[in-house]
User: Which sequence fits this backbone?
């Protein structure tokens, strides 16, 4: 039996990786192989940053024009922090087109919510909680709204288009993952879980969870971690081929594409 160093806590993104492809989870969380940021991922980071900064402004100034005006400064901030992100683009014309696509998503946000009427309790809220089983969960909640009555709304921004209802399981799993963390951290069942899709035609999806649903989600997360632990003990991380393989940077070392993974690290 092989034992490999697993993460000290499970995040929604790594959980989604394992559900998509156990080998992808291994490459990212165990081998920690480097990955180049894609334009789509960078745009998501940029747009999230703009929406976070928007709520630092007085409510009466939260207008589409002001929000769009945050794009260029936040891009420069990102480039200063990580100069390598500029290498993702071939030339300045490509950067300009990409920045305009980010501005479009920021404008779209105002079709879906009225930020002047909202005062979030938290933005980019870091959570780390322990479940009764001892499993630790870790993640960042895009926005947490708390009503005067104490009701909680968990909001997650998505820069892609809303999926067909048949294919929304991944997004639902992730928002319920956040809800479980809020529930265990604050002892309150969130009244609403809201997904704000900025891509495509824009859409808002929501769920109003019950405590029983959160217990079921917690059981699902715990069972997923047990599968991860078993893969760590056995050293068997099976690849799972899907349409998402086209986005994966690790095809050259994936058995599904004729590659050979590197030796597993040891604890």
Assistant:
């Amino acid at each position: 039996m092989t034992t490999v160093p697993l993460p000290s806590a499970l995040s929604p993104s790594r959980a989604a990786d394992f559900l998509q492809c156990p080998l992808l989870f291994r490459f990212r969380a165990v081998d920690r192989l480097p990955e180049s940021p894609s334009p789509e991922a960078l745009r998501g980071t940029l747009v999230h940053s703009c929406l976070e900064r928007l709520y630092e402004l007085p409510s009466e100034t939260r207008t589409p024009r002001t929000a769009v005006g945050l794009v260029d400064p936040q891009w420069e901030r990102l480039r200063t922090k990580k100069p390598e992100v500029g290498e993702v683009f071939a030339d300045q014309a490509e950067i300009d087109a990409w920045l305009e696509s980010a501005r479009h998503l920021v404008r779209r946000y105002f079709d879906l919510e009225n930020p002047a009427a909202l005062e979030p309790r938290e933005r980019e809220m870091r959570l780390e909680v322990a479940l009764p089983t001892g499993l630790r969960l870790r993640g960042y909640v895009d926005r947490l709204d708390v009503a005067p009555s104490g009701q909680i709304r968990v909001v997650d921004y998505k820069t892609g288009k809303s999926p067909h209802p048949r294919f929304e399981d991944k997004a639902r799993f992730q928002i319920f993952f956040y809800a479980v963390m809020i529930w265990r951290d604050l002892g309150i069942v969130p009244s609403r879980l809201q997904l704000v899709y900025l891509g495509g035609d824009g859409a808002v999806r929501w769920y109003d969870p019950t405590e029983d649903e959160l217990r079921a989600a917690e059981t699902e997360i715990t069972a997923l971690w047990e599968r991860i632990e078993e893969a760590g003990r056995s050293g068997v991380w099976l690849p799972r081929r899907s349409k998402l393989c086209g986005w994966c940077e690790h095809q050259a070392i994936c058995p599904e594409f004729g590659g050979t993974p590197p030796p597993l690290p040891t604890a």
